[in-house]
Amino acid sequence: QVQLVESGGGLVQPGGSLRVSCAASGSGFSLFAMGWYRQAPGKERELVATITPGGSTNYADSVKGRFTISRDNVKNTVNLQMSSLKTEDTAVYYCNAKHAVFRKMEYWGQGTQVTVSS
Q: Which tens digits make up the pLDDT trace of 16-67?
């Protein structure tokens, strides 16, 4: 069992930066691919970025060049550094963990609100 707790959301002006973090408890963090998803009001949840156990990353086209995902397999954390934020980045951001081998082992955090507004 893996528990995920997000932190770091908040209100930021357009063009600003923000970092959201996810702390994982439980065993085997280094065996999980980690990801950030987001859901805006009235929209479906969408992929933002993922990072494999080995550190390979993948980004949605809408955030490429602006967001950076990283992980620390010692501290069991995954971060999403967001810069050049736009109003359309406003959403609840969710941390996701998916086992690299046993794909049905998947966990979600409770989400953290990110609001980009002037």
A: 999 999 999 988 899 999 999 999 999 999 999 999 999 999 999 999 999 9
Q: What is the 3-state secondary structure (H, E, C) of the chain?
A: CCEEEEECCEEECCCCCEEEEEEEECCCHHHEEEEEEEECCCCCCEEEEEECCCCCEEECCCCCCCEEEEEECCCCEEEEEECCCCHHHCEEEEEEEEECCCCCCEEECCCEEEEECC
| Residue 74, C-beta contacts closer than 8 angstroms, at least 6 positions apart | none
Q: How far is CA 81 from CA 14, 27, 103, in A?
A: 15, 25, 26
Residue (of 37, 39, 5) closest to 21 by Cα position: 5
